[in-house]
Amino acid sequence: MANTSSEAVLRRFQSPAVRQSAAMDELVRQAVFGPAAEREEARWLIWEIGQHAGVRPASIHELYLARGRGEVPAFTTPAMNIRVLAYDSARAVFRTAKRLDVGALICEIARSEIGYTEQRPAEYVAVMIAAALREGFTGPLFIQGDHVQVNAKKYAADPEAELQALRTLIEEELHAGFYNIDVDTSTLVDLSQATLPEQQRVNYERAAELTKFIRDREPEGVTVSVGAEIGEVGGKNSDVHELKAFMDGYVQALRRLGTYTGISKISVQTGTSHGGVVLPDGTIAKVQLDLDALKALSRDARAKYGLGGAVQHGASTLPPDAFGNFPKCEAIEIHLATNFQNIVFDHPRLPPELRRELQEWVKAECKDEWKKGDTEEQFYYKSRKKAIGPFKRRLWDLPGDVRAAIAADLEKTFAFLFEQLRVTNTRAVTDRFVRPPLQSHAQPRPVAVAAPDDLEAGE
Predict the structure, then answer these.
(1) Are 264 and 298 in contact (CB under 8 A)?
(2) H/E stretch holding 228
(3) Domains and CATH numbers, the chain
(4) Residue 314: left (phi > 0), alpha (psi -120 to 50), or beta?
């Protein structure tokens, strides 16, 4: 392909035929793996193409508040952690969403995942926008910073240093286009305190401070959807009394800081754990969900505090018949991650030699994570996510037919989840409440970029 100016590339990508061709594949690859200057230019181009094509990063805040007011039907937004084979997985998401007319969906990445998947926020946003453009998906694009979480041990040693690390990440996410941020200070809940308000006090005070930090930096015309959390996933189940203790304290703490819009949702613990509980043979144990608690928490979150509802974490490895319960309980959002990773890593079309290399790498590089008493299957299942970053290019470079087979199975999973969670046909209601403004970014230092000369016809 020839090299040409950024302006010429932008003009070429005004054509839907070019956006939905292998030209986009080349541009996003440059945004991920290119030399630094070319990488920044490609990310800028993808952002600008998306802005003018109607694929704009947006906040789901107004849609959630409308749900809290009872102005839209009950649905549970899937918040999907696209960790591995990110571009192909995201293409499967948006292909499915377009076919099923889904508007309420979130692509997210957690603080911890950013590190081991080697996907900084700017890269993640570029890949998600490119995937949507490639599939002809248009509308608000909800990208979320999942579990912007305080590390309790680091906080105990040096609170300011740990909070500054979170503030630095939040600024990076906002700049990249993360307009949905889940502040997770639930690790600071102190169950040794005698009363619920005291147990939640540090949690709600730090959550309020980080909300102010976000509000002071959100772009003009955007009210970032901020989430908070009252119970750490995998810990004690939450109840309505804890919700009251947190929310009453949070509202007062935020008011003391100034006039700021608060959170739009609240994450709770109802019996799940991230990745599921792994049995010695590598299978996942059955989870006992407290659906009554989830329903009561969602009800109070809406009725008493005007939120969209409660958020369910750690749910992707639940049995298929569980997912229809979440909209019935009126949970506003559900976080899904590990099963998508499992589909990729366990796929029968994954080359055997790559599978062996992944296993050997995990054994060698993650051996310190092998807990006493765990079988090899348990260890590998828990630790293999750490191979995502080191093997990122290898996975992107898989043969097209292999990636297509994996994406087809992911698409079936996404379709099932969208239907069970009742987000099919939410495009119109999403567009009614969410209207992201045009945001044109300053161009980085100009460099020559790959031009889509001969790729309009597709792959």
Answers:
(1) no
(2) strand 225-229
(3) 3-315+328-350+398-446 (3.20.20.70)
(4) left
Give φ, ψ of 161 to 5 degrees: -65, -40
- Around Cβ 255, how many Cβ atoms within 10 Å? 12
pLDDT digits (tens, 9 = 90+) for 82-131: 999 999 999 999 999 999 999 999 999 999 999 999 999 999 999 999 99
The H or E element that residue 449 is part of is strand 449-450
Q: Output 93-96 pairs: Cβ under 8 A, ≥24 positions apart.
A: 93/131, 93/410, 93/414, 94/131, 94/132, 94/134, 94/135, 94/137, 95/135, 95/137, 95/411, 96/411, 96/414, 96/415, 96/418
How many whole angstroms separate alpha carbon 155 and alpha carbon 20?
Answer: 46
Determine whether 401 is exposed, middle or buried from the number of CB atoms within 10 Å of its CB (0-12, 13-18, 19+): exposed
User: Per residue in 168-222, pLDDT tens?
Assistant: 999 999 999 999 999 999 999 998 999 999 999 999 999 999 999 999 999 999 9
Backbone angles phi, psi at 273, to 5 degrees: -145, 155
Q: What is d(CA 296, CA 356) in angstroms, rounded to the nearest whole number?
A: 47
Give pLDDT tens digits for 397-450. Answer: 999 999 999 999 999 999 999 999 999 999 999 999 999 999 999 888 655 444
Q: How many helices (H) and strands (E) does the chain have?
A: 20, 11
> How far apart are alpha carbons 459 and 327 in whole angstroms?
39
